[in-house]
Amino acid sequence: MNRRKALKNIGMGFGAITATPAVVGLFQSCQTAAPNWKPIHFTQDQFGVVSKLMDIIIPTTDIPGAIELKLPEFLDGYVDAIINTKGQESLILGLNQYIAIALEEKGDDDAGDLTSEELEVPLSKYLRGDEVQQKNWSKAVSAYKAAVKKDSAASIPKEALAYEFAVQLRSMTITAFKTNEYIGENILAYVPIPGQQKGCVDLMEATGGKAYSL
Q: pTM for the complete prediction?
């Protein structure tokens, strides 16, 4: 992965996690998680898959990656404590469809056996797919959510929901990365005590091209 290009994209503002005091508290608790820590919201297999996917999205290079920064542990707590029940159910449904598709491609039935390489294949398909296909998946998700309100047994569009999960996970992973204390203080442009405001200045001149820490 080209880390410089990744950081440039991160600076564009992906994500939907808001850095509220509760969220900051989750981050702090995750940094001191015990060695025998267990997921609260995800099952062990689901957490294993999420961890591998987050590590693919933000791998360790010259900068700590998702695993080292304990972003999967944070996400588990965030989903459990912050996201409402409807959002939790939607996220888990998409995750389960993603896992099912990866298992079908492998010809296996144990999510714990899925490797990072096997999980990266559908991730690349969903996040790098052509724009027309992505729009079709988004439409299928919207149609399903409308249909399930009238009929709880509505047919599940597996590919579309897996795509939605992949997009959600990327957004949350990148925002969690940007919100992490180590990244905020050591990688992004960090001003612990904001001073004067300067408008219309060149980003390269102001911060060396880095996005500001949240």
A: 0.77
